[in-house]
Amino acid sequence: MRTRRWAVLIGLGAVLLAVVLIGVRPKTPGQFRSTVETSVQNAVSSVGTARVTGQTALRGNTFGPYESTVLEDARKSVATAISDIAESSVPDESSRDLRDEVLPLLQDSARLLGDLDAGLEDDDRAAATGAVDGLTAAGEKLTTVLEGLR
After folding, report:
1. Angle at the Cα of 89 (from 87 to 94), degrees rounded to 5?
2. Would you give the DSSP letter of residue 150?
3. 64-86 vs 29-58: helix axis angle to the nearest 10?
4. CA pair distance 40, 141, nearest whole angstrom
5. Is the distance from CB of 38 to CB of 80 less than 8 angstroms?
6. pLDDT tens digit string along 95-124?
7. Can you tell me the distance from the alpha carbon of 142 to that of 115, in angstroms, rounded to the nearest whole number?
8. pTM of the full predicted structure?
């Protein structure tokens, strides 16, 4: 009976170890590229939505709670994109180059989203306009990267 319990415990331990090792095993270049593509796609969408919201807010056609909600969602999406890439193991040199190309664009987007939120909240049209212009450029750069990944 004791032997059987030990066998079951050892079997469960082996299964748990296998699950853990599968979860931490390095990604292949294709898996890493797919993670980057998904992250960039989400960021492109969020940056575009925030840009349009900023433009609409500057024309006076939105209200504060809507703007705040959209910008908060956009910031969370870009932050998730950054963390998904930063937390992924980098399997090879081309993946490292891709990471090094994409992360600064995502970080710049996150900064601009914060600037837009602050500009709108403080009713600073110049800051909000600058952030919208920056988001336009960041969105174009991210879109170019995304097209290269497809």
Report:
1. 120
2. -
3. 160
4. 10
5. no
6. 999 999 999 999 999 999 999 999 999 999
7. 18
8. 0.81
